[in-house]
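Please, why this fold?
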Amino acid sequence: MTGVPAAWIAGMRLRELKATYATTSIPFKFLNKNPFKSIYFAVQSMAAELSTAALVLLHCHGYEPSIAYIIVGLEAKFVKKATGRTFFTCEGGHLVKDAVDHCLTTGEPAVVSLKTIGKMADGTVVSEFVFSWSLKQRSKVS
């Protein structure tokens, strides 16, 4: 989290990272809440994004030349008030792997859309996000 100080201050954590899924969490605390007594939408967005970014970083790591990645789209849906620690889980690791494989085999860029769902500890869904990532292998250095 040292690269994103706001995430550290907010208390965001990467809870679990596997090849197929990633889970992050964000607490409900004074610094994260809005006037409506729930977790501010931008704080939820930050934790949601990390659950997709962790998978992108994991699957793009170690290639030479490296793979560039950037968010090119975002959709969000807020279902209920987030009034407790919220966990975001993205189960799109296989989609990222397929997009990376496409980049490596064809040399063409790929866009992958990753859905992550935010739930409180009791299982209540509070928000859903879809982040679209563009992946492209960098040019080979001669």
Summary: The chain is about 30% helix and 35% strand. Strands lie at 13-17, 22-26, 67-78, 86-90, 110-120, 125-137.
